[in-house]
């Protein structure tokens, strides 16, 4: 199996989710009221586990998901798995960000589950947000790969064919960093490395920015934009113009289309 978990995952319907979530959200409010908003997220997480178990709920912290492909593997620990069916993430932050939603959605895809929720304990009042999906693993494997504007870099392993094989196994929609790590692993440092590259405006060095660089002097940029438009292409062209690169290869992971472009 491409993804394994330390717990036996089981799906539930929306009605059962709401029953369980009502109790867990009550635990979160009780934890926030009792501990305040200055305690680290680990403290609230531990308190949530104790309160949920007092209510007779099955809850496990730091449940591990392991993603494998041949000799490559990565582990992802989610904060709380309740009744082996719902994933909760505990945060202490000034506000929810897109990366928090993306992280939880990544866990839901790894578990092939539909329902999750974010809690933020750092504000005067508890903040929460639902994250859910109807995309199953089968859906995430039914993707299209667009290589119309793609000029393959000089690698021993054709990137579009290699990623197509990974996507058939894992499906699309997972963290873009996971796909990036897999590419770095299988291509190896002889073919691609993450290096610090200076960005120039005329002859002035503006900053040093990490880029995935191929040995032929080109680079790779990986994104996970849900929709592509002209502004995203324009900004990537601006980035390329600040470097000495002749080509910038771009792969965008989204559902249901993976786009390969060379700028």
Core attributes:
263 residues; alpha+beta; 6-stranded mixed sheet; 7 helices; 12 strands; 35% helix; 33% strand
What do you see in this structure?
There is one protein chain. Helix 1 crosses helix 2. It contains seven helices and twelve strands. Helices cover 35% and strands 33% of the residues. It has 263 residues and is of the alpha+beta class.
What is the compact description of this entry?
The chain is an alpha+beta fold and 263 residues long.
Number of strands: 12
What does the average pLDDT come to?
94
Calculate Rg over CA atoms: 21 Å
List the domain count as a whole number.
2
List the helices and strands and how they pair.
Blueprint: E1 3-5, H1 14-35, H2 41-54, E2 59-69, E3 72-82, E4 86-91, H3 98-111, E5 115-120, E6 127-132, H4 137-141, E7 144-149, H5 159-170, H6 176-187, E8 192-201, E9 204-214, E10 219-223, H7 230-241, E11 248-253, E12 257-262
Parallel strand pairs: 4-5, 7-12, 10-11
Antiparallel strand pairs: 1-2, 2-3, 3-4, 5-6, 8-9, 9-10, 11-12
């Amino acid at each position: 199996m491409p993804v394994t978990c330390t717990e036996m995952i089981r799906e539930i319907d929306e009605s059962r989710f709401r029953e369980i979530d009502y109790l867990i959200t009550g635990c979160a409010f009780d934890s926030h009221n009792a501990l305040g908003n200055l305690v680290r997220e680990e403290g609230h997480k531990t308190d949530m586990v104790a309160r949920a178990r007092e209510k007779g709920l099955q809850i496990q912290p730091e449940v591990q998901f392991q993603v494998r492909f041949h000799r490559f593997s990565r582990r992802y620990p989610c904060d709380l798995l309740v009744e082996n069916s719902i994933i909760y993430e505990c945060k202490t932050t000034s506000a929810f960000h897109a990366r928090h939603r993306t992280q939880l959605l990544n866990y839901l895809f790894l578990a092939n589950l539909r329902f999750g929720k974010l809690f933020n304990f750092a504000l005067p009042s508890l903040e929460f947000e639902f994250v859910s999906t109807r995309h199953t693993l089968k859906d995430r494997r039914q993707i299209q790969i667009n290589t119309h504007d793609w000029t393959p870099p000089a690698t021993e392993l054709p990137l579009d064919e290699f990623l197509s094989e990974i996507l058939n196994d894992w499906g699309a929609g997972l963290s873009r960093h996971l796909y990036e790590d897999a590419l770095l692993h299988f291509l190896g440092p002889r073919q691609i490395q993450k290096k610090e590259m200076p960005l120039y405006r005329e002859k002035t060095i503006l900053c040093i920015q990490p880029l995935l660089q191929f040995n032929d002097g080109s680079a790779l940029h990986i994104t996970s934009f849900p929709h592509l438009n002209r502004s995203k292409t324009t900004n990537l062209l601006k980035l390329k113009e600040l470097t000495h690169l002749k080509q910038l290869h771009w792969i965008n992971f989204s559902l249901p289309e993976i786009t390969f472009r060379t700028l």
